[in-house]
Amino acid sequence: MLQQQTIRTPVSTIGIGVHTGDKVQLTLNPAPQNTGIVFIRSDLTHRPQILADVNNVSSTMLATSLSENGITVSCVEHLMSALWSAGIDNLYIEVSSEEIPIMDGSAAPFIYLIKQSGIALQNAPKQFIKIKKAIEICTGDARASLLPFEGFKASYTFVYDHHVYNRYPKFAEIDFTKASFESEVSRARTFGLARDLDQAQSMNKCLGSSLENAVGIDDYNILNKNGLRYEDEFVKHKLLDAVGDLYLLGKSIIGAFEGYKSGHSSNNELARALLAQPDAWTLVSYKHKPIADQISPVLQPLAA
To answer: CB 3.0-4.6 Å disulfide test: which of 21, 88, 185, 268 passes with 83?
Structure first.
């Protein structure tokens, strides 16, 4: 039986909140089986908790934010994608601010943090959400969908007409039964146009943004000294975000994700649409076998 997982020991880091510009301490702690992923605002009296759940998503402007009982934690998507990659089901996440630190703008530092702690198996079966029929949502010309697939793969089409973006691939598809999220996707950083920064900061967003935690782009060039980490880093970061947003379902997906010009809002809308159609999915558990990343095509379902 493929078992639930948490981390072995507490592990901490300090970084900057990309929107507030504040210094933030983040601590990952083991959690009992069937707990799920729980954020704890350690800076507030009584240390209120916020469950990582699609129904707790309160904002998708420039990041995914969660709120419960009036308490918010934002920028959760990069950390959530790292937890998905490591197969972490249960975790207490203490954060000393209203947002998760941006680190280098990717999921890689969080994966490193999880590796520092190690992974602990738990005496409860891991469950997956298996897609039985296609679900699609459309907002304007943006689309996002989930389709049946034995394993998990994700594709994204990035649509933006700009001198820099047009020089790089705008489509990526990765079958995670064959490719590693850590090596192929996790280092893809958030990105943005330098000319948009003033507008974002006027809205009290991106106050901590810099070339240390994002790919900056002017009218014709990438501003970062060392350029891109992947030739298709822009589109791969969109995949990274989608994986993190969908992991707010609380379980990994057996199926295929397709995004076209979609973002945090579409990802959350898609997850909610899935839950609203119980005939489109089922919960399954699997026999324990060696796997590539999280999901292997050789896994055999035990229950549906």
So the answer is: 88
